[in-house]
Amino acid sequence: MNEETLLDKIKRKIDQLFSSGLSNPTEIAKKIHEDLSIDESTRTLNHTRANVKYHLHYAKKRKANPALAQACEERGINFDNVGIAWNKDKHWSIQFRPSKTGPTFEEMLQDHIDEIKKHTFNYEKIGRQNYNFPCLLVIDPADVHIGKLASSFETGEDYNTQIAVQRVKEGVDGILRKSSGFDIEKIVFVAGNDILHIDTPKRLTTSGTPQDTDGMWYDNFLVAKKLYVDILDRLIKIADVHVMYNPSNHDYTNGFFLADAIKSWYRTCKNISFDVSISHRKYFKYGTSLIGTTHGDGAKQQDLPLLMAQESGKLWSDTKHRYVYIHHLHHKISKDYHGVTVEALRSPSSTDSWHHRNGYQHSPKAIEGFVHSKDNGQIARFTHLF
Question: How far is CA 83 from the centre of its chain?
């Protein structure tokens, strides 16, 4: 594609289909994949759908401001980047803003409703077999940062929304393959932990730190939602699933909304349970194991064992193997305290510009999983490296 890139072809196709009367982003994306024979393994339908929504949004913006769009075109200015404009003549100097730069709440709500309508919620309870040596599998995609942007030209490794989704799916598949020799009767899936890279339309974290980003915030929210649904739909076919959500510093609000949306998505499913409160530390008992999870940006590591004992007194007294899985650090740390092992997990996300400049090389990139037996605590660990 020397003369025209795939993205150029997609943009041209979007304009053609929109002009022909198609307006639903999903239908347009499906038609593009069909007409251009796009392989899903090289470019996902959801990625194309995000391009469609973005392109249509600015097409409507240009239509609402034709004079401004023409003026920008005449001056070689990218109209999509214009937030404020001035119109000056000998009589007036007028400052004005183009139409809205993001979707309204009603538009996002309708998009969510359209997605729900396409999804079948008739989850029938799946019967499970009894195992002689039943085990729990913990799958923990830590610090995915959907929406993070890193360029190999600067940092040595690319990272974007599409790569993030591919790595999580590949990592979960890898953990499932590696653990297939165990009798898995239950799965704990750890959600949250900076699943999203930003928390505001201005491309900032919750506390206001600017970030290099790939895609619009609302598209990345929908990408993360679809990723979780795809993964959980697969996991419940293997064993009953318990979802533990950890609030985190990059997406304290949007991450909570996402977790609650996923809980609502599976409201009729009898094979999945949720602990998605805003509590910063969560606990789950399996056999003689007490498993805690937290993001890792709050309480100090050495304080987590005592906090576990205080916050889950009954569970503590009923168990003898205790673990706290933490995140946030993007690299491996494991330390035994009195009665509790605290373990920091690796992340699949690449190093961005700021971390690379300051020498924080988070490697290796990985997704991790752990097997707990009924009687002996953690008996195996698996790492899927990228």
Answer: 28
Ordered by start, the domain boundaries in the chain are 6-100, 106-385
What global pTM score does this model have?
A: 0.72
Encode pLDDT of 28-71 as tens digits: 989 999 998 888 776 888 778 878 887 787 777 777 777 777 77
- Peptide bond preceding 25 in cis form (omega within 30 of 0): no
d(CA 95, CA 116): 41
Question: Could you tell me the two tokens for 13?
Answer: 């196709």
pLDDT band with cut points at 50, 70 and 90 for residue 76: confident
Calpha distance 364→345 (Å, rounded): 11
Residue 273 near residue 242, CB atoms below 8 Å: yes
Q: What does DSSP assign to residue 147?
A: T
Fold of 106-385: Purple Acid Phosphatase; chain A, domain 2 (3.60.21)
Q: Is 43 helix (H, G, I), strand (E, B) or coil?
A: coil
CB 349 within 8 A of CB 367: no
Structure confidence at residue 104 (pLDDT): 59
